[in-house]
Amino acid sequence: MRLVIMGPPGAGKGTQSAMIAQRFSIPHVSTGDIFRKNLKEGTPLGMKAKEYMSKGLLVPDETVVAIVKDRLDEKDCKKGFLLDGFPRTVAQAVALDGVLTDMDMSIDHVLNIDVPKEVLIERAVGRRVCKACGATYHVMYNSPSREGLCDSCGGALIQREDDREETVVKRIEVYLEQTKPLIDYYSEKGLLISMDGGQGIKEVGDQIVKALEKRQ
Ligand code: AP5
Ligand code: MG
Ligand code: ZN
């Protein structure tokens, strides 16, 4: 199964992606996670991405497309994949179509997590991530059993640098302007499945699994 998951910042893409990847045994490819990993390792790509990410802006299309192309070329993506946070502009979506056509592939479904704007800020600002393994928590909605520590690996939980309220507001603006038009792009191709992301983590997950199983 080849999937894209989209939705505004803090909608729950990463949270649901972890569940979907496990359930359907496909790799979870998150461009945001790739950039954060590079940043942690201090690579030139990480340094370049930081300039944009810290301001809540998008990394240039050609940089992101090249990374995704390389990642899709890896062996584990032969059995399918879940793209999280990519594509994020119409230009990226068109480029992705071209990359996949060259590989004799196409996207099967695009999951769109719809969440009201007021909820997004609260979700992003309350998010905590594990410094070691990247697992995602929320101070209110998905708290770890031991405060400040990851349930899976015991690592320290930290706040993402771009989760300060003013940066989140900017990211939402950028989403509305540059990413939201993709809803029409994929809807016209008959690929879009929209979810009500305003419910709890489990309820949203159940909607996704139900929708995907029906179409398998
Ligand atoms: P990226 O890392 O992709 O960030 P994003 O799209 O802004 O989305 P988030 O990761 O913030 O949110 P999410 O939807 O994954 O929510 P989560 O599951 O964590 O991108 C970061 C940056 O990298 C971009 O700003 C850009 O600079 C750059 N970048 C990345 N891709 C790019 C691209 N293609 N092109 C250009 N630049 C790119 O959930 C959020 C919180 O809510 C968590 O605490 C979670 O526990 C909680 N939660 C989740 N679901 C629920 C629920 N149903 N109820 C209650 N709480 C919930
Ligand atoms: Mg995410
Ligand atoms: Zn961890």
Helix coverage percent: 40-55%
Question: What name does CATH use for the topology?
Answer: Rossmann fold
For the CA atoms, what is the radius of gyration? 16 Å
N-to-C CA distance: 8 Å
Q: Which structural class fits the helix and strand makeup?
A: alpha/beta
Keywords:
216 residues, Rossmann fold, 8 strands, binds BIS(adenosine)-5'-pentaphosphate, binds magnesium ion
Helix-strand blueprint:
Blueprint lengths: L1 E5 L6 H12 L3 E3 H11 L2 H10 L7 H12 L8 E4 L5 H13 L6 E6 L2 H9 L1 E4 L5 E3 L18 E2 L6 H15 L1 H8 L3 E5 L4 H15 L1
Parallel strand pairs: 1-3, 1-4, 2-3, 4-8
Antiparallel strand pairs: 5-6, 5-7
The chain binds BIS(adenosine)-5'-pentaphosphate, magnesium ion and zinc ion.
Describe the 3D structure:
This protein is an alpha/beta fold and 216 residues long. The protein has one domain (2-215): Rossmann fold. 49% of the residues lie in helices and 15% in strands. The protein has 9 helices and 8 strands. It has helices at 13-24, 31-41, 44-53, 61-72, 90-102, 117-125, 165-179, 181-188, 201-215, and strands at residues 2-6, 28-30, 81-84, 109-114, 127-130, 136-138, 157-158, 192-196. A 5-stranded parallel β-sheet has the order 2-3-1-4-8, sandwiched between helices. Strands 6-5-7 form a 3-stranded antiparallel β-sheet. Strand 5 and strand 6 (136-138) form a beta hairpin. Helix 4 (61-72) packs parallel to helix 5 (90-102). The radius of gyration is 16 Å and the shape is globular. The termini are close together. The model has no long low-confidence stretch (mean pLDDT 96).
